Amino acid sequence: MSKTRGESQDDALRTRLRSTGLKVTPIRMDVLDYLLTIGQPVSHSDVQSAFPMLDRVTIYRTLASFVKSGIAHQVQGLDGMWHFCAHDPNASGCPGNHPHFLCLSCGKMICLLDQRMPRVDVTGGNVVEGKQFVAYGFCQECAAKRKD
């Protein structure tokens, strides 16, 4: 158990992992707790910085298992880097079925949960498996710094 989490928080993490069929491990609990605490999409390297004792492959596999199980979604940034965000799989608008905003200065990505994705109609028997929309510019803090 993380030193900053309480027993009830650990129970909630265990329940969330088990409800999606994932095995409960200390690494999964720590990474899930981190994603939920951050509350916005973060890159693999952000997770790596938070857990320097874990190797890159372990983090990648953990994040991939979260996406596959439906407790996180991923969105690709302008640089091609994937960002991951944990969410409640029973909440509307997830996984990832919403636009995102990416700050070009600090790299922060924000889920725009109150906005809907544009509808895409495909023809000829094509099947859409996913879509993403990333608006980019400068977050409030970075925009204020640019004015100074």
Explain this structure.
This protein is an alpha+beta fold and 148 residues long. The protein has one domain (7-147): Arc Repressor Mutant, subunit A (Orthogonal Bundle). The protein has helices spanning 7-19, 26-38, 44-50, 56-69, 140-147, and strands spanning 42-43, 72-76, 82-86, 100-103, 109-111, 134-137. The mean pLDDT is 86.
Order of helices and strands: HHEHHEEEEEH
Oligomerization state? single chain
The radius of gyration computed from the alpha-carbon positions, rounded to a whole number of angstroms, is: 17 Å
Q: How is the CATH topology named?
A: Arc Repressor Mutant, subunit A
- CATH 2nd-level architecture: Orthogonal Bundle
Number of strands: 6
Shape: globular
| Mean pLDDT over the full residue set | 86
What are the defining features of this structure?
three-stranded antiparallel sheet; 148 residues; globular; alpha+beta; three-stranded mixed sheet; 5 helices; Arc Repressor Mutant, subunit A
Helix-strand blueprint:
Blueprint: H1 7-19, H2 26-38, E1 42-43, H3 44-50, H4 56-69, E2 72-76, E3 82-86, E4 100-103, E5 109-111, E6 134-137, H5 140-147
Parallel strand pairs: 4-6
Antiparallel strand pairs: 1-3, 2-3, 4-5
Helix pairs in contact: 1-2, 2-4
Describe the structure concisely for a colleague.
The protein is 37% helix and 16% strand. It has 148 residues and is of the alpha+beta class. The protein has a single domain, classed as Orthogonal Bundle (Arc Repressor Mutant, subunit A).
